[in-house]
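Posting for a labmate who doesn't have an account.
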Amino acid sequence: MKKVGIILLLLIMSSCAAKKVTIEEIGNSKSISVYETTKDFINNVMQLNAKIIIKEESKKHIKVSKIFDSKTELKIKNWRSFWAIEYNNELYFNLLYSKELLRERVFAKLDIKGKLCAVIIDKDSPEILKPSKHSNVHVGARSISIDIYKSKREQPLGKHHWKDKNGNSKAILLIETVYLVPKFASRKEGSFGFYLNYSFLKDLIKDYNIKNVGNLKDVNFERVIEIIHEINRQ
């Protein structure tokens, strides 16, 4: 009986053990560094040197197949909750921490990094970075209550496209790293990305005491980017 118990224990342990990646996967992998949480990013603490296997890639995003430890070659189980990864000297934000652009396994390149981080989306951005009517309520096949996204910065979506000086329309997914959404489901405590609309911009201007903005209706994309950089310099 004791022997049977030991065998069962060994079987359970072997089934729970992390699996190694294949030689082929190692050959196709790329090196990355990881910010597991927003606080790690703020404190510039990279928790892990790892390798990534990319399923899909553009100049603006990567879709991940798996991430594994570069030393042990074991698959990392909780990689889907990493807040951000650094790949090819660029920082990519996990869209699992977004409302309007909620995506699993997809990381979007940050065009602006700092207290305020931003992903700029325009007509040339890949479709996966453009919102769908279901992108704020589904994670794969699992439906998630919108109530869990409540944040100081969440606003009714409203108008969230900004015209640049050439008349081109652009959207900005903004991540304000000083505000953290509590841990829930598979996500760690972390800052979420929200579309920057007029209400959100108005709050930022007030909270960070930005001067000489004028009428918000006259603010173009270039001025919005200036405001974001001005806040990041504070």
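Reply:
Got it, the structure tokens are right above this. The longest strand covers residues 48-57.
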